[in-house]
Amino acid sequence: MTSLAAAIQMFHHRWSVPTVARLYRQGPQRTADLQRAFGAARDTLGDTLRRLENAGVITRVRAGNTTRCDLAPAGRAVGSACVDAVETVRTMDIVPLALKKWPMLVLVAVGRGASRYSHIEAELPGITPRALALALKDLQAAGLIDRTVEHTYPPTSIYRLSEKGNQLFPVMDRLCRAAADAMPDA
């Protein structure tokens, strides 16, 4: 299984994927323009931009009296996958879920074959047990994964992608693979 560490490093913050998608489509943007476009709090977006810059995804470009955010080579490498992810999430009407930190990464781990809680947790460095439990519940409530309980001792939950989850998985997997290719050291 391909590690999800690069995707976690690159996209673990709420506005990361939409920011990269917007910069890929529209070119350099002022922070204020991004903030307005997303309706994001200044501090939250600022934190996202700092993390993307530290990960080598964006760069800040000085143009006269203004500073604009632009994509670095790693950002350009994942830009198309970000655009596809944003469009698919909007089409499937799961934007609030996709803006959370872990659910889409959990979906990818399940889609790649991790079916038990401990296997999913092992694929996602840095996820807490509570965050994983909430992401699984959110994905199940959205109809993206199915949970079955094996009647063993102790009972074991098995997670699999639902039909809807199988539609979303290729787009999210492509995004994670693009991140891994753009950041091979992660």
Q: Helices and strands in order, then pairings?
A:
Layout: H1 5-11, H2 16-26, E1 29-30, H3 31-38, H4 42-54, E2 58-63, E3 66-71, H5 73-91, H6 95-98, H7 103-111, H8 117-123, H9 129-141, E4 145-150, E5 156-161, H10 163-182
Antiparallel strand pairs: 1-3, 2-3, 4-5
Helix pairs in contact: 1-10, 2-5, 5-10, 7-9, 7-10
What are the main properties of this structure?
186 residues, alpha+beta, Arc Repressor Mutant, subunit A, three-stranded antiparallel beta sheet, two-stranded antiparallel sheet, 10 helices, 5 strands, elongated
Structural write-up:
With 186 residues, the chain is an alpha+beta fold. It has one domain (5-182): Arc Repressor Mutant, subunit A, CATH 1.10.10.10. It has 10 helices and 5 strands; from the N terminus they run ααβααββαααααββα. Strands 1-3-2 form a 3-stranded antiparallel sheet. Strands 4-5 form a two-stranded antiparallel ribbon. The chain is elongated. The chain starts with a helix and ends with a helix.
Helix count, DSSP H or I runs of 4 or more residues? 10
CATH structural class = Mainly Alpha
What's the mean pLDDT score?
92
Global structural class: alpha+beta
Terminal-residue CA separation = 15 Å
* Estimated share of beta-strand residues: 5-15%
Based on DSSP secondary structure assignment, what is the total number of beta strands?
A: 5
Give helix % range: 55-70%
- Spans of at least 5 consecutive residues whose pLDDT stays below 50 are none
CATH architecture classification name = Orthogonal Bundle
Spatial strand arrangement across the major sheet: 1-3-2
CATH homologous superfamily (4th level) name: Winged helix-like DNA-binding domain superfamily/Winged helix DNA-binding domain
Q: Using the coordinates shown, work out and report the CATH topology.
A: Arc Repressor Mutant, subunit A
